[in-house]
Design goal:
Layout: H1 2-28, H2 35-59, H3 64-92, H4 98-127
Helix pairs in contact: 1-2, 2-3, 2-4, 3-4
Length: 128
């Protein structure tokens, strides 16, 4: 549980860094996106990453077969939630300008890399 709280703090720090840099970039350049779009999309992706980490770390205290299942469920659920978010973002809300697409994929890659690195580091330390 202590490890989960440490990683949640890192996730919140990443979210604050993304919001600050997004505000700075939007205010200094003439991109076609607003800070509200950036804040909303990053908050949703942060929530998805949080759910992924909670499921993953919940399985770390259990037997090895349960750990594998929790890891698989966490990664699969993350993929499905982000797929639904992409469908809603692009087709329902109609955010298909180049700047919105780039924003989506930059945030997607950022939060995915964060989640994968945390999982890999945890699994590497557990294997030794």
């Amino acid at each position: 549980m202590k490890s989960l709280m440490k990683h949640i703090r890192l996730l919140l720090l990443l979210e604050a860094l993304i919001l600050a840099s997004g505000y700075f970039i939007i205010s200094k350049s003439g991109t076609g996106i607003t800070f509200g779009e950036t804040a909303l999309l990053s908050a949703i992706m942060c929530l998805i990453a949080l759910v992924t980490l909670v499921i993953f770390f919940r399985g770390q205290g259990k037997d090895p077969s349960s750990q594998t299942m929790h890891s698989l469920v966490a990664v699969s659920l993350k993929f499905l939630m982000e797929l639904v978010l992409a469908l809603v973002w692009f087709f329902v809300v109609k955010k298909t300008q180049l700047a919105s697409v780039v924003l989506f994929f930059v945030l997607y890659l950022t939060f995915t890399m964060f989640s994968v690195l945390i999982m890999m580091k945890t699994l590497k330390n557990r294997a030794i």
